[in-house]
Structure formats: structure tokens, C-alpha cells
Amino acid sequence: QKAAQLDSSMLDAYLPIGIVEYYSGLSNTLVKTGAKYFGLNASREEGIRKMEIAASQSPWAWTESLSVLSYIYQFIDIDKVRGLEVSKKLVEEFPNNYDYKIHYAVSLLQTGDFKSSKLILDDLDRTLSMQRARHQEGFGSYLDYLWGYYYYLIGDDEKSVEKLDECINNYAAELDAFLGEAYFLKAKIMDKRGERVELRGFGTFNAKILAEFQPPRKWKLGRDLTYSTKDLMGDEIKALQDIGVKVNRDTDISPVDITV
Fold first, then answer.
1. Would the pTM of this model clear 0.70, i.e. be above it?
2. Are 21 and 50 in contact (CB under 8 A)?
3. Of 163, 167, 182, 242, which residue is the least packed, with the fewest Cβ within 10 Å?
């Protein structure tokens, strides 16, 4: 921050400042207060604005800025169009980067480009074994989810569940967002099949599932189903609030009341 103040042309500094401001904006009051104490704006919007500056104008940090924004636009503050733009740019600049291709595939699926996404997924399948051994398990988990998402979108629920189960049962990746999405898609398929009893038996609490499959009565989620509000994604929070869920972001752990 001091470097940016001393030299306004040091646009690479906008990335770390933007990251801290963005995630402070997602956090509880204590973290927000701490950020303000250090002169930061604990705001998701301001954080994104700074990261966008770094992505478009910085000489060194633009790659990482695009990567972070890609994740944010795909899983937190959903912007499918912008998510596609940034993930496509990364793949164009680094066509052999496996991780960037994964996020590009996410955006292609989110925007309904099944033809292009199938080509990318086939390429990811073909090149998985070429990745470093320690990366293959993690990338494989992402790939299982992507295939499950692809089959879900084209209406092949049987193949979708097969790939989603592989993702869920053998998850070895770092980003939990893919795992949460796998649970969510499987829950939607189970609901279509009338398997709501099994759906409620899921061991992993997922805010999207609760938002999509509203219980027929008021539930008090006790300590066995409390969750960290800082882990909720932007669209999940909105979806929960839309059905009357109280989401208290002033504390890290918050049970909720759901009235339908």
C-alpha cells in the first residue's frame, strides 16, 4: 500500500491490495475493522475494481490478477460473461497451462457453449497423464466435476451422477468450490428423481442445496449443522436470503433459521 502511494505507476500493487480488500469485505466485523485500521477499504466492489486495474494495466501481476478474477467471477460474485473473458484471455496467452484450461472449461459450460467445452474437456482428458504426479489427483477431481456438469447440462443425468460421485468420493483438490458444486448438481438430480430423503442425509452442508430444495417446515440448524458464513459464496448468500434465511456475517459461525 505504501509502495502504491509513493509511486502511482506501480500498478502491480493493486493486486494484493485488491485481494485483501475483497476478502475483508466477505469477512466478519472484526476483520473489516482491522482492514480499515490499516487504511484499506473492506469492500468486495473496491477489491474487484483494484484487481481489474492490475489485470488490465500492471506489467507483472496481470496474469495472477486474471486468475483470481476468473475464480471470483465463476464461483463467488458470479459474472459469467466477464468470467469467460478473463479465463479465455489466460488460455490464449498460456495455451499449455492445465489449470487455466480447467477454468476456461467452467466458463464455457456456464455460458452454454457445449461444443467448445467438449473440445476442451477431451483435451484435458488426453493431457491429464502428462501433468506432474502430485497434480494429477487434484486436476482429476476438477475434471470429474466438469464432466458431471457437462453431462448434466446436456441432459444425461446417469452419466452426470457417475462423474459427480467420482468427484465427491475421491476429492483430492485444493479448491472446495468444485466439491460444493458437485454436491449441488447431484442434489438437483436426486430431487428430480424424487429422492429428497437421501438428499437431506448429505453429510456436507451446502447453502445452495438448502436454497434450492426448501424444507417444508421451519428448521433450526443446531451445532451439528452450523457453518462458517465466511465460506459462503455471494450467490449462495443471496439465494438463502431470498427464501428468508438469516445470514449473520458479523460472526464466523452462525446457525440460521429457515422459514418457508
1. yes
2. yes
3. 242
> Vertex 255, ends 258 and 47: CA angle to 5°?
100
210 Cβ contact list (under 8 Å, min separation 6): 240, 245, 258
CA-to-CA distance for 194 and 178, rounded, in angstroms?
A: 24
pLDDT in tens, 83-131: 999 999 999 999 999 999 999 999 999 999 999 999 999 999 999 999 9
Cβ contacts of 53 within 8 Å, gap of 6 or more: 11, 14, 18
- Tell me, letter by letter, the H, E, C secondary structure of the chain: CHHHHHCCCCHHHHHHHHHHHHHHHCCCHHHHHHHHHCCCCCCHHHHHHHHHHHHHHCCCCHHHHHHHHHHHHHHHCCCHHHHHHHHHHHHHHCCCCHHHHHHHHHHHHHCCCHHHHHHHHHHHHHHHHHCCHHHHHHHHHHHHHHHHHHHHHCCCHHHHHHHHHHHHHCCCCCCHHHHHHHHHHHHHHHHHCCCHHHHHCCCCCCHHHHHHCCCCCCEECCHHHCCEHHHCCHHHHHHHHHCCCCCCCCCCECCCEECC
Distance (Å, whole) CA 35 – CA 39? 7
Task: Give the integer Cα–Cα distance in Å for 190 and 139.
Answer: 26
d(CA 81, CA 158): 29
Please state, in angstroms and rounded to a whole number, the distance separating the CA atoms of residues 93 and 173.
24
Of 56, 64, 134, nearest to 100 by C-alpha is 64
**Alpha carbon distance 210, 206 (integer Å):** 7
